[in-house]
Design goal:
By secondary structure, the protein is an alpha/beta fold. The protein has nine helices and nine strands.
Amino acid sequence: MRKGGATVNRVAVVTGGSRGIGRAVAERLATDGMAVAIAYAGNDVAAKEAVDAIGAAGGRPAVAARADVADEGAVKALFDLAEHEFGGVDVVVNAAGRMVLEPVAEIDLDELDRMHRTNIRGTFVVSREAARRLRPGGALVNFSTSQTRLQHPTYAGYVASKAAVQALSLIMARELRGRDITVNAVAPGPTETDLFLDGKDAATVERTASLNPMGRLGRPDDIAEVVAALAGPARWINGQTLFVNGGAA
């Protein structure tokens, strides 16, 4: 496969790749030698910054496309772009997500529907396209959350969406038998991202960090390191949910 006169090896599609964990994943996969197609929800500036950062670091080529992950037409166009620019798709990382934290008795059902549209339907739509397009030797990495174990109050709606992702990942690993494609879920704990920090005061953040055996919050690079292993050398991990949280209970 060639693009612009340069040989392109493995190709990754990363949703939610313009910010937070998704951006860290996109940058890490590029550093590992993959060409990357980033999907983002609407922040053009952040998407350009992510692409420019990959280029400045000397990684493989990168492109960005605005895409609603729950829209099958937009997702198809995203994969078409990756195939057109780089020749195929080998790795898909579903990092796009929404989080709404409210007690069950108080949660706004419209907000719940919007969150589940991204976290459940979006993961299904992207995973379906991945199942159709990934080449042998490929990997699909979905994102869950350590809250499926921690189960703190106010997280019910979010955890419901991410528990679905864990079930989807195991079933897909079995459905793709014989194609040399792995499917796993990564379940981060509290991580220094806008998604986690939004609406939390400094005392809450400090208290959360202090509860971790490592004495800090996770960093996006901590999560990206595990995704990179699943996307590359860790071929004997399949159908699993990996809790990447520094030892949170």
